[in-house]
Amino acid sequence: MNTTINWTGAASFRATTGSGHDIQLDGPPDHGGENQGARPMEMMLVGLGGCTSFDVMSILQKSRQNVTDCRAEVTAERADTVPSVFTKIHIHFHVTGQDLNEKRVARAIQLSAEQYCSASIMLEKAGVEITHDYTMYEG
Predict the structure, then answer these.
(1) Cβ atoms of residues 89 and 76 within 8 Å
(2) Of 119, 34, 48, nearest to 13 (Cα)?
(3) Domain boundaries, the chain
(4) What pLDDT was estimated at residue 107?
(5) 47 and 121 in contact (C-beta within 8 Å)?
(6) Cβ distance 130 to 123 under 8 Å?
(7) Is 83 left (phi over 0), alpha (psi -120 to 50) or beta?
């Protein structure tokens, strides 16, 4: 796995993933950026949210749950001092489907957190407190 980061001016960068996808990164105006892309720390949250969402949906599909929508909201707290690392991250899943089994939804989230999500496990080993919860909807 690899990624190349190219400076494109001021505090702006273009990341190219090993699979050939481009992502614009930029800093906030008060740090020389022009707000033309995601912040690098936001991208870490995107990676975490994407990783656990892939796991949860895969587990739910394998357990024959009729999911029609799944959204993960990821919120984080950072240290007040430099480096301002993440100290706490919370992931709230909104799972919509027909006749969902609550135990299976809870178990899918637990399995992702404890066994499958590499991003989550890596961040927890670095000392980040990660919590999860969910809301289920019929539809």
Answers:
(1) yes
(2) 34
(3) 1-38, 40-138
(4) 98
(5) no
(6) yes
(7) beta
Strand 3-9 to strand 12-17: parallel, antiparallel, or no bridges (unpaired)? antiparallel
Which residue, chain included where needed, has tokens 């029609």?
68
Per-residue pLDDT tens for 26-79? 999 999 999 999 999 999 999 999 999 999 999 999 999 999 999 999 999 999
Q: For the domain made up of 40-138, give the CATH fold.
A: GMP Synthetase; Chain A, domain 3 (3.30.300)
**Residue located via tokens 């670095």:** 126
Distances in Å between the Cα of 80 and the Cα atoms of 30, 61, 87, 98 are 17, 40, 10, 43
Point out which residues pair with 72 in neighbouring strands: 93
**What mean pLDDT comes out for the span 127-137?**
98
Please give the share of the chain, as a percent, with pLDDT higher than 90.
Answer: 99
List all residues 6 or more positions away from 105 whose beta carbon is below 8 Å from its beta carbon. Answer: 60, 65, 93, 95, 134, 136
For residues 23 and 37, is the Cβ–Cβ distance under 8 A? yes
